[in-house]
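So, can you check these tokens?
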Amino acid sequence: MPIQHNPYAQRHSLWLRGNLHAHTTLSDGELSPDDTLNAFAKRGYDFVALTDHDIVASPNGLHPHILFLPGVEHSAQQHILRVNVTSTLPHDLSYQSVIDLTRQEGGLVILNHPNWGENLDHWRNAQMIQLERYHGIEIYNNVIEYLEGSPYALDRWDLLLSEGKQVWGYANEDTHRVFQIGSAWNAVNVRERSKEAVLNALKEGRFYASTGVVLEEITVEDGYYRVRATNAKEMRLISLHGEVVEHVAGSVASFSLDKARKYARVEAIGEAGSRAWTQPVFLE
């Protein structure tokens, strides 16, 4: 199956782990901005975005052990994560304007927790299909584990991918309390430890999202999607409309793309419901 776009075409030896959605005492979080960064650094995170509701955090101290990404959660009726920005935007702007202005500022744009709420409709399908130029959606949001709705949005992701939207899937903690740290992350594959390298990988899809499964290698070449994990017990190749095309037991998989249609992504399943998700490879 010919490949239209492969986010893993470039491969580097360095993997960095981070969270893109965290709140501090500037909005409804438990810790100050500086203490939040320190808490993530102590848990081995390499980068973190502080994204308070409609306010941009500016830590006072130096944090040499963690890369700080400024950001904000645009908290209109539907929430949009804006990473690598220092501006806030009024709520009466259209969502498309929020996306476009964020990108003009060099930011990463993510639609937050689509399945939050009793009716699983924080974002409606028609909205997400109509909007353009956002980088992706939260396919997992930990704080929704404790609220109404579903923390997972894999159904929405597969719908968008099946509709031809080339969007990435991010797993974020939406950290409000310290106990959440470690529940989700995005691991980027980069050449160097720098803010620029991390942001480029997040925008280009050179990462995987996880709630506990660690992936060591992701390669797509010669018609095969290969993934190696340290702690997975099952691997699944997922394609059009979320269909599981193939699955294997264990922590190593080499999936042929012959049966995949339109796109292919891999889900790794670990103990106690933990997961990792690679980004989609788009097929001709």
Remarks:
- Residues 220 and 226 are 6 Å apart (CA to CA).
- Residues 33-42 form the longest helix (10 residues).
- The mean pLDDT is 98.
- The radius of gyration is 18 Å.
